[in-house]
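Subject: Predicted fold for TANGO6 N-terminal domain-containing protein, 257 residues

User T.R. writes:
Posting the sequence so we have a shared reference for the thread.
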Amino acid sequence: MADLHRDMEKLAVDRLGTSMRRLNEAIDSIRAVRMDPSVDIEAKILQVLPLAPNNSISERLLALVDALSEAIAEAEALESSRDPPVNKTKPRAPLCLLSLRDYTTVQAAVELILVWGAYPCVEAGILTPIPQRVVAKTFKIDRAMVQHVATLESNPSTPAHLDNVLRGLLHVLELSQFKPMLLPAYLADLLACLVYRIHCQPSPPPTAAAARLQQLMDVLPIRVFMGSLRGVLATPHASTLFVLSSIPFTLKLLFIH
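User M.O. replies:
I've generated the structure tokens; pasting them so everyone works from the same file.
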């Protein structure tokens, strides 16, 4: 039994290492792309991303993050079931051990999936304009290129695509590795997208979005949740429907808590 568990741990570590390496390589390749009107930027980025069932940039990037999320979740599950070390004076390395570079890569991937995957699905003015987004200098990604890709007509813009983007982002951001730092940083964006999906895109029914919003309300401290919601409401919005739909939602939260 012990040998089987060790084999499972080795497989999980290998899977995690492979998933993280592929995501690092993809983000490094995207960093190398600079805005050039004479170049087909979309084709250049697609060329450096692994093939996926769907062909858009955001979907290929999301597939890489999904693979990493699954690998981390598997490693964390095995970690929780490990026997205590025989020699307590020699601590062993955790199964899910990420470097600072890995964390920077994951944050860069989250930022790109949000901007390239969610922005095309919502009305202009719902989310912070891309040039005004606070982007970590460690990303080292060309802002002009990022904004150009976000405006491509080939980007999926359906409610179903927004559901998939929100699913993938919440999956990775709710992992214990990233939840303390990254989830609060992107909570306002996620709330804006979820409220928009629920109240401004009623077809198909936003069942998954409503469940994800409720889950955030259940697991996050109300102070953190309300702080991000205030940030959403304080942002000038072009959509009257979005603003009006946010008011009863906020009142409901205040009444419940």
